[in-house]
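ok new one. same drill as before - structure tokens go in, u give me an amino acid for every spot. 215 of them this time. try not to just spam alanines like last time pls lmao
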């Protein structure tokens, strides 16, 4: 079986950066599952449907054409790497991710990323639902303050404007929604190793995860 490392955790816990670097260190492929929710969210905003129009969301999730290549992502041929990082898209992604039928519609697309020599997958339910047989499951956490701070820097770096207060508030709202939804709520898998990154930098976190995998 192709090995998989799952990295789950709350919003802005640093999963994306860490997962990408762990994948690079091991020569594995990388799945940013949140990007699939963000792409569906962006597509839904573009055609102007309601966030609770589940049937149309499911159709969108199945029909949109997605290509990940060299750090860029294309939606139906258009480079949307930056567009999907907007807070408006992240908030819409979090809102539509509560729908069980939409989550179901994205399962096959996510599992298709499992190809040799291996995969690092980040998200909310990688270890619990999508890859329950993963070789290593990591649950990344960090304090709300550390996460709001990281998200702030990330947005400013990309040229978006942001306010720390608003970010902390949105972050808590997303935490609540992610952990309280009925479909695949955010929680560590029973066999996950938890890592609090509040006081760790990216390098230290990556080294810890790679070390666990090699053990
Ligand atoms: O880092 P942030 O949480 O803002 O975003 P993300 O990881 O790109 O995911 C965007 C949204 O999609 C999250 O707020 C989750 O609600 C949802 N999501 C999910 O439900 N399951 C996943 N495996 C990945 C993301």
């Amino acid at each position: 079986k192709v090995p998989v490392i799952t990295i789950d955790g709350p919003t802005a816990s640093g999963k994306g950066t860490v997962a990408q670097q762990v994948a690079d260190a091991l020569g594995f492929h990388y799945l940013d599952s949140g990007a699939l929710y963000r792409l569906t969210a962006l597509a839904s905003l573009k055609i102007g449907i309601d966030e609770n129009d589940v049937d149309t969301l499911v159709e969108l999730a199945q029909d949109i054409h997605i290509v990940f290549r060299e750090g860029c992502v294309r939606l139906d041929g258009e480079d949307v790497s930056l567009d999907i990082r907007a807070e408006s898209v992240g908030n819409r992604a979090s809102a539509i991710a509560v729908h069980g039928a939409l989550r179901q519609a994205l399962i096959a697309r996510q599992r298709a990323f499992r190809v040799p020599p291996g995969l690092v997958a980040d998200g909310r339910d990688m270890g619990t639902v999508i890859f329950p047989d993963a070789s290593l499951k990591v649950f990344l956490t960090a304090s709300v303050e550390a996460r709001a701070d990281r998200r702030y820097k990330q947005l400013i770096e990309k040229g978006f404007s942001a306010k720390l207060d608003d970010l902390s508030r949105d972050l808590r709202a997303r935490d609540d929604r992610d952990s309280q939804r009925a479909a695949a709520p955010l929680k560590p898998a029973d066999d996950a190793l938890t890592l609090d990154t509040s006081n760790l930098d990216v390098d230290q976190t990556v080294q810890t995860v790679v070390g666990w995998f090699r053990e």
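The chain has one domain: 4-203. and btw The chain has nine helices and eight strands.
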